[in-house]
């Protein structure tokens, strides 16, 4: 009998609660099959929470999360919930990623059997991971930019230590994978615009220093514009990619389009002492509560959490169930990114295959 898993759950806004319900349903089925129990603790936060309390996250929540095996987070944000400066209230990227120092944003991009992406590739040909630096880069300027009535300025900061740790993370991750689909090589691609900006030149310099410690993993560079092209034209060449925060935000959405859309893409925000897992998409308030949303991004996020918590067999069981549900045609994507038959039916199809 394995020990219980202690799981934090932040349900979020819009479609968040229904997605989290779906993921918990799958997680409980997986845990039962693997012989462990899941103890769930609610972590209140998000836009609705901000509207009620004036805080994006319950005080003390960060410490609580550090003591758990992981946090499963639904998407947050509501267009009508605003802070006094006009930006959205209750967004948690700046709070959780910075507060937990979750420096590696891990975003697998994988085309499943039975899913049609936006390119002509088939299953097995797209299987890479974007590692997005998560605590600095352009988004460090969040809320700190200089604004006058005539202009606004944000700055992009890259630190040696920030690149060192995320590059190491990327190389370590590459060692655990089976390489790029095209040639089976373990490969880490550094994506930057070092031809234009000093900050990106530093990113590349530190990446190269780290790469020297991993002679068994191929290291290469792509400028971000060329990388955007290559991720569409020849995604099978990629294994692990590492990049600055803003570039990773954009290229991970591009990658999502090649594997069936944002609703297929999970992510993990991983630091040395805490981690949380969430879909890469937003809270889609216009379709909330209508049983339309694709739960797969949230379900696969729970799978990443299992892997991170050292429950590898459970993680494989969960991923296998999702894959079979698509391969069998039991879950089918709609052109609008939703799932045929609805969120609950898709969840049941996945649970039946656990
Ligand atoms: C993401 C999201 C967030 C980000 C938004 C909601 C602040 O787009 O996780 O990719 O840009 O980091
Ligand atoms: Mn994004």
TrEMBL record:
Signal sequence residues: none
InterPro entries: ICDH/IPMDH (IPR050501), IsoPropMal-DH-like_dom (IPR024084)
Cofactor annotation: Mn(2+); Mg(2+)
Domain Isopropylmalate dehydrogenase-like: start-end pairs: 6-350
Keywords: Manganese, Metal-binding, NAD, Oxidoreductase
PANTHER family for the chain: D-MALATE DEHYDROGENASE [DECARBOXYLATING]
Identification of the protein by name: Isocitrate/isopropylmalate dehydrogenase family protein
Source organism: Pseudonocardia eucalypti
Lineage of the species this protein comes from: Bacteria, Bacillati, Actinomycetota, Actinomycetes, Pseudonocardiales
